[in-house]
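Bench notes, afternoon.
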Amino acid sequence: MASQLAHIPEVKRLSPACMRILAGNPSKFTLQGTNTYLVGTGSDRLLIDTGEGKPSWLAALKRVLDDEKATVEKALLTHWHHDHTEGVLDLLELSPHTAVYKCDPTEGQLDIADGQTFEVEGATLTAVHTPGHTTDHMAFILQEEDSLFTGDNVLGQGTAVFEDLGTYLKSLARMERLVSGRAYPGHGPMVSDAKAKIAEYISHRHQREVQVLQTLGSAKDAPSMSPSDISEQVGAWTPMELVKVIYRDVPESLHLPASGGVVQILRKLRDEDRVVLEDGDRWRLKGRPSL
């Protein structure tokens, strides 16, 4: 996976009002690392996310602030995941006066409300509650650029994970209508067309849903099944059985995480009364009899 990732420099100015600083935590889950963003053009700036407390990130942030002759007035956290929040204490050691904001704040933090604005010279950010990846997830519109900080709902490469698919799709639909400019994601490179990328995400999720429905409606490969398997509800599928069909071209090492997404699709379809769950972890189409 690492060899397929686009190179991202540790620090890069992406626009007159936006600089990206990598959190120094690359991995198969964080891609090149978590993106943090310094926003504004004057002496007081906004910081979006804080990484997970890696010394390289703090050093890079300090270096940028010194070069820019700027300080962090407010830090805005997109969501609670540790790779976006654990740098808060380091930030406060560097900049004790910084106010930290987060939806559903913890002790010492201030709340972010849907529609709340944060303004510094050269940048006005509007917060948008976009649950799905997490319940507290916030995106931020940069009004001057008609661009969007998408957090982990939309990435610069690959697809995102989510806690609740139905909620996530509603948030994506809302995000698609917000801006016509670029996207600044929580991981991966900047996206030049936010609307097109979000539409691509929505289409991908619907394609996966169609694949699940089609596979549930198909016959299992009986010759490859043991007699005991055949005798058990051939019309019902476990999530991993669905994964092995839908993701047959994906390395098996990724099948387990893929099953989490399939379960989310199945739960959404159950909420829509289109599938039923029976016998622990076996799913079938509503109205299709078990054999």
